[in-house]
Amino acid sequence: MDFTFLPFILLFLLLSFSIISAANPIPKAVIFQQHLTSKPTTTATNGIPPTTYFEITKPIQLPNTKPCSTLLLRHEFGNSYGIPPASTQYTRPSNCPSTNFAKIVLEWNATCKDQDHGYKEWADLIIPISQNIPLDDALWFKIYNSNDVKTKQFVIPPNAYRAVLEVYVSVDEADVLWPRNLPNDYISSNNLTGRPAINPYLWGQISAIGSFALPSYDIEITPLLGSLLNGKLHDFAFGVTNGLNVWLIDANLHVWLDAKSEKTKGMLLNQTISPLHESLKSNFMGFNGTFVTSVHRSIKSSGWVESSFGKIVTESTQDFNLSNIMVMGNDGGSQTVNQTIEFNDKVASSVHNTKSLKSFYFYLYSERVDNGDRNQEEVENVTLGFNEKKIDNFGSKSSSSVLENLQNIHGSMILKDNVVVSGLGSSQQNYSYSDDKFCYFRNISRISFTIIYDKVGDTCSKPKNQDSIFNG
C-alpha cells in the first residue's frame, strides 16, 4: 500500500489496520469502529480535542453475520521521508469460526501530533548582521556608492532548520530624493550642478509614509541552509545597485533550532536569479524631455532541510518591478515624476505558506515660476501610497491582512535670491488596516501646522477570506 500522498512533515503517526470478515450480512446499524482491536489516540492536547478528518463516500455493504477482526499492523514513526514503508506478514486469522469470508474490509486509522507543538512560528535565535562592537559610529553599514560592498561573517548553528534574513534599508544625502534625481546625460548636456531640493512646507505634523516606521523586508534563506550547515564562517554582503551616497543597511538573521537534533542537514535544489533588467530611455532637447526607467528582477530558490520534523522542502520566490516616468518641461522649470514599485514575495513549504503583495506609489509635480525682482514661486503636489496584502498559513493557524495608506500633499513657497521667505503647506492622509481580528482606520488633514480634521475608528470591512484579498 502506497502512503506517499501523506504529508511528509508529520511528526508522529499512529496506524492501526483491522480486517473485518463475515460469512453473512450484518445489520447496517453496526459501524466499523465498534469492532476495532485498537483505536487511534483521542487525548486532547492543551485542552483542544483532536480534529477528525474524513472523506464523504457511500457506505460499504456488509454481510448480515457476526464479524471477526484481526490487527494487521500498528506502527509509530516520524522523520520517515525516503524510508521504505512499514510492512507486515499476513496470515489468515485463527480466531474466526469460518475461513470462507463473504467480504473482507481493510480499515485504516491514523493520528498525528499538531506542527504547533514542534515546528515553531517564532525564531529561537536572532543573529545581528551589522557592524561589530565596539565602534565609533552606528551599528548599520554605510554604502557610499554602487561599487561599495560591506560584509559580515556569521555562523549558523548546526541544528538549524529554518532561517529568515530581515533587512533594513534607509537612504541619506544624495539619494534622499532618488525618485526625482535627473539622468546623467541630461545633467552633463545642460551643465547642471547641485541636487533637487525639497519644499519644507510639504510636511507639517503629518510626516511622510515610512519616515519613522520604515518597513523591513524578510528574505527566506531556508533553501540555502544546506550550504550553511557546515559549522564554518560565512559572509553576508550588502551593496546598492546604481547607488550614490549614502545608504544605511543592517539586518537580523532569524534562526529556528531543532531541540531534538544535534545536527540537521539540507540541500539547495534549485536557484534561479534573473539578470537585473534595467532600461532607461531618454528623449530630450535642451531642458525639456521625457525619461522612462524600468527595472525588473526575479529570484526563486528551493531546497530541503531534514530534522526531527521530517524532510521539509521550502520554495521562496521574490519579484521586483519598478517603473519611473519623468517629464521635464517649461525649459526645466517643471518636473513631473510618476513612479510605481511592486514587490511580491512568496514562501511555500509543507508547514508554512506566506504570500505578500506590496506596492509603493510616488507622484510629484513641481513648477517654479520667475516673478521678477529676484523673486520666484515654487509649487509642488505630491502623492505617496503604500499598499500591502498578505496571507500567512502556519500549521493549523491562518491569517490575512490588508493595508492601504495614501497621502496627498501640497506645498508652495516664495524665494528671494534662492532663499525661502514664506510658504504654505497642506496634506491629507487615509490609513486603513484590517486583519482577521483587528481593524483600524484614520482620516486626517492639516493646513500648515494646524490639524483641521482627524477621524479615527476601528470598524471597517474585513476580508471575507484569504483569496479575496488578492482579487480585485
UniProtKB/TrEMBL annotation:
Residues 1-22 form the signal peptide. Pfam families: PNGase_A_C, PNGaseA. Residues 65-113, 118-191, 197-271 form the Peptide N-acetyl-beta-D-glucosaminyl asparaginase amidase A N-terminal domain. The keyword Signal applies. InterPro entries: PNGase_A, PNGaseA_N. The keyword Signal applies. Keywords: Signal. PANTHER family: PEPTIDE-N4-(N-ACETYL-BETA-GLUCOSAMINYL)ASPARAGINE AMIDASE A PROTEIN. This is Peptide N-acetyl-beta-D-glucosaminyl asparaginase amidase A N-terminal domain-containing protein.
